[in-house]
Specification:
Number of domains: 1
Low-confidence stretches: none
Number of helices: 3
Number of strands: 2
Radius of gyration: 15 Å
Strand order of the largest sheet: 1-2
Mean pLDDT: 88
Structural class: mainly alpha
Largest sheet: 2 strands, antiparallel
């Protein structure tokens, strides 16, 4: 999941520094503050969990977690 976070942050950095600001809850570390980019990360994170480790939840839970992602990008092809 840290790789996913890094990928989203790097993509956001290419758009502009205004998408980042200090983390008010922590020690002021720079974090992604743009709501749209935060939603994109949450959708990707949920899909990675649901599609990458489906055994952790019931199929209905995985479907709910992956819905934002699969609505936009579709369901990934099953191997084989």
């Amino acid at each position: 999941m840290s790789t996913l976070h890094s990928a989203v942050a790097e993509a956001a950095r290419q758009v502009g520094p205004e998408l980042f600001g200090p983390d008010e809850d922590e020690d002021g570390t720079e974090v992604l503050i743009d709501p749209a980019w935060q939603r994109a990360f949450k959708a990707a994170y949920s899909a990675a969990l649901a599609l990458g480790a489906p055994e952790l939840l019931a199929p209905e839970g995985n479907e709910i977690l992956a819905r934002r992602w699969t609505t936009v990008f579709g369901t990934p092809d099953e191997p084989g």
